[in-house]
Amino acid sequence: MDLSESLRARQSEIEAALERALPSPPACPAVVADAMRYSVTAGGKRLRPVLCLASADAVGGDRALAMPAACAIEFIHTYSLIHDDLPAMDNDTLRRGRPTLHVVAGEGMAILAGDGLHAEAFALLAREPRSTDPEIVRRKLRVVDVIAAAAGAAGMVGGQALDLDAVTPDAAGNLPPAFDAEGLRTMHAKKTGALIRASAVSGAVMGGGSDAAVAAIDACATDLGLAFQIVDDILDVEGASKDLGKTAGKDAATGKPTYPALYGLEASRRMARECIERAESTLATAGIRDARLLEIGRWIVERSN
Ligand code: GRG
Asked: What's the 170 CA to ligand 1 centre distance in angstroms?
């Protein structure tokens, strides 16, 4: 689906803000600055920052206040992709249409670039938006808490640990039992869902949304995150590596449980559509009428059609 002018404009604003936020020499050695830039500027849909800004808009806030959180989350997302692609994890050679960072810069530098992006994300959150207004400082602190929890051991790192553990044999060579439907949902809710939710919540908080509006946007983003994961699994079965910009067919090849494997392709497509319908009705019930948030939902699902 072609994105509306307004979402494409957001993507361009985000590209420019990411460029500005990346550290550069002389403070940062060129070798690691180049490695971080290689992965951040390799493209990517910018789903999380777009969602963050759309959520600030949806609560009637000033989206400029949400831009640092949008960039910080994209830094964290990019670090997670760099580390996920390492030989010790998914061992992948293609990402965002380019050779993975460890292939071009070596494993050590890829680890450091990921570590650097992770720390830069929180430095950016602490620094910007620059303000001494106690209300803005309060929002910033809340967002640091939300993003740290989503990225950490209870969120993305925890989900990645569950995923890694599921394919790691014990000393006797036995794998743990395969995930059932509930286990798969929990793993994805942590691994990818938590950061997607944090993107929307951070935008709504920085935009000054009421507690009720933030809760509705959180519930909406929970469904968007689940739809995103189901669609990602469908694309892994159906997509070509050159269209996806990453290696296709990886899940089946490594015996990973997926939505199509558990439910079949048609049921998976239906489940993704139902997530978006639920997200729409959550927003409608909360009286949030923002065309962009709904468009993001349709964008997620239509990638698999
Ligand atoms: C290494 C701590 C650590 C965590 C890694 C998110 C993650 C956790 C690994 C990524 C593995 C993966 C490919 C999961 C499928 C869903 C996903 C996050 C896809 C990539 O996100 P997109 O499609 O990528 O938003 P772009 O490149 O468009 O930003």
From this structure: 26
- Count the Cβ atoms, other than its own, within 10 Å of residue 293: 24
Tokens 């050679």 label which residue?
A: 93
Whole-number pLDDT of residue 240: 57
Pocket test residue of 192, 235, 244, 250 for ligand 1, highest count of atoms within 8 A of CB: 192
Distance from the CA of 232 to the center of ligand 1, in angstroms? 9
Whether the per-residue pLDDT at 255 is higher than 80: the answer is no
CA of 248 to the centre of ligand 1 (A): 13
DSSP bridge partners of 94: 99
Residue 82 Cα: closest atom of ligand 1:
1
Q: Which residue has the tokens 């570590």?
A: 115
Structure tokens belonging to residue 127: 């620094």
Residue 73 has pLDDT above 70, yes or no: yes
- Angle at the Cα of 30 (from 29 to 36), degrees rounded to 5? 100
Integer Cα distance of 112 and 28 in angstroms: 12
Distance CA 164, CA 90 (A): 9
Q: How far is the CA of 97 from the centre of ligand 1 (A)?
A: 14
Name 125's Cβ contacts closer than 8 Å, sequence gap at least 6.
68, 69, 72, 140, 143, 144, 147
What's the token pair of residue 3?
Answer: 């994105």
CA 159 to ligand 1 centroid distance, Å: 11
Here the contacts of 29-35 (C-beta below 8 Å, separation 24 or greater) are 31/109, 32/109, 32/112, 32/113, 32/116, 34/105, 35/101, 35/105, 35/109, 35/110, 35/112, 35/113
Give per-residue pLDDT as tens, 169-228. Answer: 899 999 888 888 899 999 999 999 999 999 999 999 999 999 999 999 999 999 999 999
Element (H, E) at 98: strand 98-99
pTM: 0.94
What are the pocket residues of ligand 1 if the criterion is a CB atom closer than 6 Å to any ligand atom?
44-45, 47, 77, 80-81, 83-84, 96, 156-157, 160, 191-192, 232
